[in-house]
From TrEMBL:
GO terms for cellular component: extracellular region; plasmodesma. This is L-ascorbate oxidase. Its cofactor is Cu cation. It catalyses: 4 L-ascorbate + O2 = 4 monodehydro-L-ascorbate radical + 2 H2O. Residues 10-123, 137-300, 409-526 form the Plastocyanin-like domain. Its EC number is 1.10.3.3. Its main location: secreted. Keywords: Copper, Disulfide bond, Glycoprotein, Metal-binding, Oxidoreductase, Repeat, Secreted, Signal. Transmembrane segments: none annotated. Dimer.
Length: 552
């Protein structure tokens, strides 16, 4: 294993991600941030300096367990204090498992501002992946608004709430086209054909492939809002990895991908070599108002400037949830993967609702809308600072009379900052229960992401979860993941072992939803956490504690 050192500066810069100039949050002058490549077992040292003039920053390493380093998880108010302008924080952690990951800002709406990049962990020297490929490409997917993330934040927190709407552009590796389309020739919309030289910041990546080879495509979705569907014209794909865990190979002609998920897919270049093909990314799960993102798969030696002669692949209808459910439920663990414990020690049922608090639109879990405290949980729990957050236990379930198929009879809710304290090394079931939103006949998709752990996805169901549904759980080959979706009006059952000392966020990965309170905090084994670096504690009550210790 190696130590890999990086020196990063986060700053605002002018950039034209979709050919329209804007201000993005970049790292070392790059957008998206630099791609990290490491091997399983390596230790990463990322020295992060905040060059934003007037706001704090943190970076979360999405999918990395942070076992033994919970203070390096990069979640403001949970694992550490935000890094102030001009200050440097060193993230030191081990990447213990090969797979496709990414990193992103986890303070306010800094992911929407463009703070993200890829993190790829290859197998250790001498180890082999359980599949073969000749080359690989990496696609980091995101969505982009022309309104700044600060303005979005104010809009969402206004009374009445002003919804941010659908993104203007989908980006692939930080590149998209707002004013033109690569495939205007094939569409009946009024958009004009793009006329790009290739050197523009918004010029699409081109994937150059040789005929009759197998390629690995690593895909991660860092979208703020959009659920996506990806397809390669004329080519089948085989899913082999999700969230850093191997899958039973699953062959598809297109795939859904939700915010917070990562995949590896294999495809073989077995099509006519004198042509090029489209790779398309489209919005699903919400009525789309954003054009497809497109890139070209170029068969060498065909010229990359030859446009494919067929229209780009079209995604299944945005509201074809049966399609999505069937896609998701066929994702299963590779034979030989770790199996879930047969029984759970505790089952927490989390109802997802949209609510009003004094006229403000919020999301709540069992009627509590998460508000992050000034002192990060990790430090306040470790040092027993009792005034740092609500000590009332958040509810384990919701009322038996609640009808998930209709708007709530009482749409009010309250703010909360409580923690689900989990007994160390116990097995926890979480049932995520979807419900109707404020408006009748509306229930949205929410991709839930857990920090510090992978969970087994035991099953999906429709309507209200009932203890009898347990008989439907897949205990044989459920996939291990760190993100799982709940479908409209449905439930999703997860199981994990609380074996990672620390305080961990569990939340909807749609950034505006998290911002409106859609999350909870789990903590376990915090007494086993070794000395937390002072730099992670220099705010709120932990800062006071440090000062008192110095003066004693
Ligand atoms: Cu990728 Cu807490 O998020
Ligand atoms: Cu959500």
């Amino acid at each position: 294993a190696k130590s890999r050192h990086f020196k990063w500066e986060v700053e605002y810069m002018h950039w034209a991600p979709d050919c329209v100039e804007a201000v993005v949050m970049g790292i070392n002058g790059q957008f998206p941030g630099p791609t990290i490549r490491a091997r399983a077992g390596d230790n990463l040292h990322i020295e992060l300096t905040n060059k934003l003039p007037t706001e704090g920053v943190v970076i979360h390493w999405h999918g990395i367990s942070q076992f033994g380093t919970p203070w390096a998880d990069g979640t403001a108010s949970i694992s550490q204090c935000a890094i102030n302008p001009g200050e440097t924080f060193v993230y030191r952690f081990k990447v213990d498992k090969a797979g496709t990951y990414f990193y992103h800002g986890h303070y306010g709406m800094q992911r929407s501002a463009g703070l993200y990049g890829s993190l790829i962990v290859e197998v250790t020297d001498g180890e082999k992946e359980p599949f073969h490929y000749d080359g690989e490409f990496n696609l980091l997917l995101s969505d982009w608004w022309h309104k700044s993330s600060h303005e979005q934040e104010v809009d969402l927190s206004s009374n009445p709430m002003r919804w941010i709407g659908e993104p203007q552009t989908l980006l692939i590796n930080g590149r998209g086209q707002f004013n033109c389309s690569l495939a205007a020739l094939f569409s009946n919309s009024s958009s004009s054909q793009c006329n790009l030289r290739g050197s523009e910041q918004c010029a699409p990546n081109i994937l150059h492939v040789l005929p009759n080879k197998t390629y690995r495509l690593r895909i991660a979705s860092s979208t703020a809002l959009a659920s996506l569907n990806l397809a390669i014209g004329n080519h089948k794909m085989t899913l082999v990895e999700a969230d850093g865990n191997y899958l039973e190979p699953y062959s598809v002609s297109n795939m859904d991908i939700y915010s917070g998920e990562t995949y590896s897919v294999l495809f073989t270049t077995d099509q006519e070599g004198s042509k090029n093909y489209w790779i398309s990314v489209s919005v699903r799960g919400r009525e789309p108002n954003t054009p497809q993102a497109l890139i070209i798969l170029n068969y060498i030696p065909t010229s990359a400037s030859n446009l494919p002669n067929l229209p780009p692949p079209v995604a299944p209808l945005w509201n074809d949830y049966n399609y999505s459910r069937s896609f998701s439920s066929k994702i299963l663990a590779l034979k030989g993967s770790p199996k879930p414990p047969k029984k759970h020690d505790r089952r927490i049922i989390l109802l997802n609702t949209q609510n009003l608090i004094d006229g403000y639109t919020k999301w709540a879990i069992n009627n509590l809308s998460l508000v992050l405290p000034a002192t990060p949980y990790l430090g306040s729990i470790r040092y027993g600072l009792n005034n740092a957050f609500d000590h009332k236990r958040p509810p384990e379930n919701f009322g038996p009379d609640y009808d998930v198929s209709k708007p709530a009879s009482n749409q009010n809710s309250t703010y909360g900052s409580g923690v689900y304290m989990l007994n160390f090394n116990t097995t926890i079931d979480v049932i995520l229960q979807n419900a109707n939103a404020l408006q009748a006949n509306v229930s949205e998709i929410h991709p839930w992401h857990l920090h510090g752990h992978d969970f087994w996805v035991l099953g999906y169901g429709e309507g209200r979860f009932n203890e009898k549904n347990e008989t439907q759980f897949n205990l044989k080959n459920p996939p291990l993941r760190n993100t799982a979706v709940i479908f409209p009006y449905g439930w999703t059952a997860l199981r994990f072992v609380a074996d990672n000392p620390g305080a961990w966020a569990f939340h909807c990965h749609i950034e505006p939803h998290l911002h409106m309170g859609m999350g909870v905090v789990f903590a376990e084994g915090v007494q086993h956490v070794k000395k937390i670096p002072n730099e992670a504690l220099a705010c709120g009550l932990t800062a006071k504690m440090l000062m008192n210790n110095v003066h004693k």
